[in-house]
Amino acid sequence: MMMMEDLHELSRELVRDVLDLAEDVEAGPADPEHVASKAEEFIEVLGVISALSDQDIDYRVTANLEEVVHRFSGTREHQAQHTQGPGRLAFDIPSAVLEHQVLSGLPAGQIAAMFGVSKRTIRRRMKQNGLRKTDLYSAMSDEELDRIVSEIHRRHPNTGYKLMRGHLNARGVRVPISRLQESLRRVDAEGVYMRRLRLRVLRRRQYSVPGPNSLWHIDGHHKLIRIERMWRDVYEHALDLFYQIFTSLQDQGTLNPDNEVHLFALHRIFLPLIQQSLDSFRDAWNFHGLRTERNQSPQQLWRRYREQGPMEDPTEVPEEYGIDWNGPHSLHGGTVSVPEVQLARELSDEEVAILPAPGVSLTDALRLYVETVQVLSRIIAD
Fold this sequence. Notes:
Integrase_dom_put, 15 helices, 0% strand, elongated, mainly alpha, 4 domains
């Protein structure tokens, strides 16, 4: 990943480019298409800088650049209108397909690559069909956005703005980065500050593969680094809250891991919630932006790959890939056996029906866990 000095240099280059563009516009007639295109690039660079540094960008800067794009795009549209005459035939891009790609969040450059045209052609067609990037954004008030962000934050308290955006996108909620950052500051001001203090930018090896789900060679050391990093994310964003809850229950004497009744109640109430948390993290991960892919999400990369078609000559991976037939045999078959809870006796269907129902919200889980322990203790004692 980028070091901080690289980010500072990128910021300085952005300032120089903005000033150069302003001088060109002031010096005389400027190409509206070029100005609008450069302004859009500046907005994308600001998003990258904000994502890598975890620093908020003044919303007025982005708003001013978006105003430049709007004004010069309007001029560009007016100049692009013409009657049939000499020249090349227009490239046929179905409006329905273009709308689908734009609303899926793919950047203009990627859409252009899919059709084999320039970004300017895609932007012109978007303008002709009344498609704008702002059409992606959901119409909702700050109060509605804060409510959704607060709900996600209660289930995933360690989530920063980048993964929070993945949670929102997975729910079909899309808002500008600036609005999401402001919402997180209102909902979790302390968490935003603490995450800035913990920010560490590391350089990691990058890998290139033909397409999604492709395999590549990776040595053991780096494989362990990748696995440990993924487990850290899963724990921090999906499991840490439950660890804190269970530890607190043990400290209070409400949970005894050697008590089968306690374990049965714990599994009954919390296993569905843990699965919900893992599913939510999975969806957010699939919709969160990847720095090395120009902030495209895994879901967007997969969709682009499917629509562009498979590789010309993909190599089928045999089922025994990765098996060392001459190596030592595993004693455990690569699996972890979780022992089932052994109650004093098996519960009847009528007795199970008496127990509090699982699948509740996290807010009610602690109360229902205690109730389940009490009811189950009475059933076993009878």
